[in-house]
Hints:
Elements: H1 5-30, H2 41-58, H3 69-93, H4 102-132, E1 138-143, H5 147-158, E2 164-170, H6 189-195, E3 200-203, H7 210-222, E4 226-229, E5 240-246, E6 249-255, H8 262-298, E7 304-310, E8 316-322, H9 350-357, H10 365-371, E9 375-377, H11 384-391, E10 406-408, H12 410-413, H13 423-438, H14 442-458
Parallel strand pairs: 1-2, 1-3, 3-4, 9-10
Antiparallel strand pairs: 5-6, 7-8
Helix pairs in contact: 1-4, 2-3, 3-4, 3-14, 8-10
Amino acid sequence: MKVQKPFFRNISYFFDILCISISYIITFNTIYVSDFKKFSYPFLLLSIIIWFTMSLFSKIYVEKRSNKFSEEIVQIIYHCILFVVSISSVLFFLNLNHKFPSKFILVYVNVLSFLTILTKYAIRKKIHAALNKGNFYDKVLLIGSTNTAINFLDTVSKYYYYGYKCVGYIDESDKLSNKASYFGNLDQLETIIKNLEIDEVFIALPKTETEKIQNCIAICDNYNIRTRLLPDLNDYTTSSVFINNLGTLPVVNIGHLPLDKKENKTLKRIFDIIFSTVFFLTIGIFIFPLIAFIIKITSKGPVFFMQERWGLNNKKIICYKFRSMIKDSSDIDEEGNYNQAYKDDPRITKIGKILRKTNMDELPQFWNVLIGNMSVVGPRPHPTPLNVQSIETVDNYMLRHMVLPGITGLAQVNGCRGETKTIDEMQLRVNFDIYYIHRWNFWLDLQIIIQTVVNIFRGDQNAY
């Protein structure tokens, strides 16, 4: 992958220039403008120059192996916004806006956005296909055997499209022999780098081993090997932090929650209202009666299921869903514990399986969003018994109630949905929720929404 990066980057450059040219041709032949006497090559050249200039700010050509495609879509949208603002400004200052009116620019940028997303997806799938065949991998060496190291090994093994292949690990003792090859202790690092082809080194040592970490970094620097640190996420998910410099001294700043700011809270609320209203006026207006009719004729009981859950500041709310289980199903098992839905759960109706698999059972929660006790994106609200059950066993569990709960969330689009069989599974979900709370921004919400839509069509093995 290391050798192929420049190749794929050049391919991206080429296809983007092609997309700009095709978009201009399509718009030129679609939008009639009286002043258009001939094809304007200077405008095409200006578009290409501005496009690549804006990439310095949007970073659309930065490596994205660890990003979901929904994140790349958001980045492309952001880039296109910068592009349209820039090209409109240039045309205005050159007094050419009469020749290229707003209608032309609007169509041009929309076509360009669509083609760019399409080509980026095609390139990504081509890379994934090559990785799936075992090509283009970066060979990495892991240093350490902490829980973070285990999570890293599991992640790169499960998600091959990240493009990493762990050739082995080193540590003071062999603790991960069932997951990776053991190459010896830290004293072997320099020898391993000399004898093996290593593209990157990932360090997952305990944070107390400062001297060993610095020594490993120094050795890697001597051989020009890229080094990455794998910190323990639990150390960073409970605080909103950002790093800047005081001279050459790095300073870690502990900040307030993004959604503590009134302007951010207002922006999110406005988006929730607009998004929910548009949903009800477009999709909801016909899909609600259809789902309600199917539920009514296939099983006895009400169409909607109303359940008490915990919202902002632990306030109890009524969460609305389409009923997906048989009437009067019990939420409590024989031992008095909360009875989560599980695979092949006999309580789930036939139509309920489809609704839960596609997340359509959650659609009535757009009403919760409109009345203000939920958001489109946020930590998923849990039923009261599950909250009570998790408070004492899951670290920082109550912190997830610092913001409005959501219909979808960061945890859900990362596979943490459905039944939580173990405390570790719930802890991972909470870690994602807290990460979202402390690093919220509008673009993150947009990315989560896009990924949710993608997951609906792609399917989710944990949805049942």
